[in-house]
Amino acid sequence: MLHSIATVSISGTLEEKLRVIANSGFTGVEILESDLLTFPGSAREVGRMVADLGMTCTTFQPFRDFEGMPGDLRQRTFDRLERKFDVAQELGTDLLFICSNVSNVSTGHRQRIVDDLSEAGERAAKRGMQVGYEALSWGKHVFDHRDAWSIIKAVDRSNVRLILDSFHSLARRIPCDSILDIDPDRIALVQIADAPYVQMDELSWSRHFRCMPGQGEFPLVDFVGALADIRYQGPLSLEIFNDRFRAASASQIAEDGRRSLIFLEDKVAQRRGDGTLPARAQCHGVEFLEFTAGEEEAQPLKDLLAGIGFRHVAQHKRKAVSLWGQGDIRIVVNCEKEGFAHAHDLLHGCSVCAMGLRTDASQDVLQRAQALRITSFAQPVAPGEFEIPAVRSVGGSLIYFVDETRRDSIWHTEFASTGVNAPAGPLKRVDHIAQSVPFEQMQSWLLFYTSLIEVEPTEPLEIPDPLGLVQSQAVANAERSLRVTINASAARDTLASRFLSSYLGAGVQHVAFSTHDIYAAAGQLAKAGVEMLQIPEPYYDDLQARFGLKSDFVNHLKRLNILYDQDHVAEYFQIYTRAFAKRFFFEIVERRGYDGYGAANAAVRLAAQSRFQNDVYI
Known about the structure:
Radius of gyration: 28 Å
CATH topology of the largest domain: TIM Barrel
Number of strands: 26
Strand order of the largest sheet: 14-15-16-13-9-12-11-10-17
Mean pLDDT: 95
CATH superfamily of the largest domain: Divalent-metal-dependent TIM barrel enzymes
CATH class of the largest domain: Alpha Beta
CATH architecture of the largest domain: Alpha-Beta Barrel
Number of helices: 21
């Protein structure tokens, strides 16, 4: 299907929007009247720009308050219609987009509506044009695509066709299988938008909370699957109204839009058994985390790792890269003075520059990434070194995909043992990785992960920071061997926002390691002198009252600064280190049947961190 997007979906001038849309691989564009009115030129010039960029103008929209207008208003409406036909033709499109009427003075008399659309079709035919009719979910008389389709059939003109919009249909929870009753040849255009389910009027919901496919909760696979069942071959066009998107990079949002349509069509194809892309990557945990560190920060980082119980188990045979291990955790410390890690260090300082994920078919991941317009990464490798497939994330850090069959060979071939074995514990594996991202990029990160990797998003949460709200959402695979939390805040002074400011972009704010014995882990850190986050005493008084805990148990938690949560019989324990170089920190968790991230403790943790001027992160 032709992929299109409405100019209202991204920010910028009309000229900027058209260039960005074309560069993102769209072959169609809907021109919104609001964008055209602010363009300092003619519609004909816009039409030429669209054509010169290798695109077609999918439609000109919207034409409002058309059908069922009374008396003199009807004549004025048809006069306006003729002018809009002129503009559409100058733009190079043959489709004028008509929304169902919302005017209080309009009549809902069915025959009047049919007659008006029939006359519109007759006038359009004289120009070799067509009109499309859409049922707005807040329309005065027509607000259901089934009703709009019934009207189109009654008009019975080949150039008067239906426009479907997933938002208008799914916001009213109209069954997707109702599409099966529609003649695909009578559908002029299908607009696609996702959205979270919220309790508000359809107009406000539509104007502020639409999002790209896969970023909301609508059953778009069912919706587009029904279109595939009736063999609809026309355009799929994104029409997204979202305040967050308008504040974001236009190129990022356009790329997200293109990726979301590819992902959506792939999910429909996979369900039908005729998919052409490799399936989403099945990842089985974190193979390694790579930290970059310059001369001044390398030794303090290694001292911190040693304090947490890691040991320097191997050294790269050719590079200034050391391998640290504990349990099933591998930490790579890269001190090279050239290459990607060094460039990352120059921009962000000592930080996580890459992570490696274990997978069954690493080359398939790259093929899928290419189809999804995700940038792959490669740099020269020396003889005897392995080239590990990698992609760039939204923020520019790297994700490597380590094939299960090669993982041992990589470490044994490229690294020389130091003669020190990795301790068996108390830390066992990477539990989750927490990233702070700009508020306007949060949906981009979610789409990046869910389209490429076999992970699903959890319910979004709002966490109170002392200076504002932080939005948090996680993605995780089914076996819970891979978990990533994504945190963002629109408030300027939250710790999340201050992290972004000092770090100069999105990045890993903390890494959580799992243990089977939180007390042993806390004791080890205390013995090693690792600075830990101090939890205020009133927290423990409240904890005891809230869960009815025994005093000895609570006092044990208090002595070790352990945070605690429970969900019925499931329990969760957390401790945090202080920040390293104002950039990142470590968390240690013990799960006893618990699947969350201790959201109930987040406000306490944030408040505790905000008291330390050096801890400017979340």
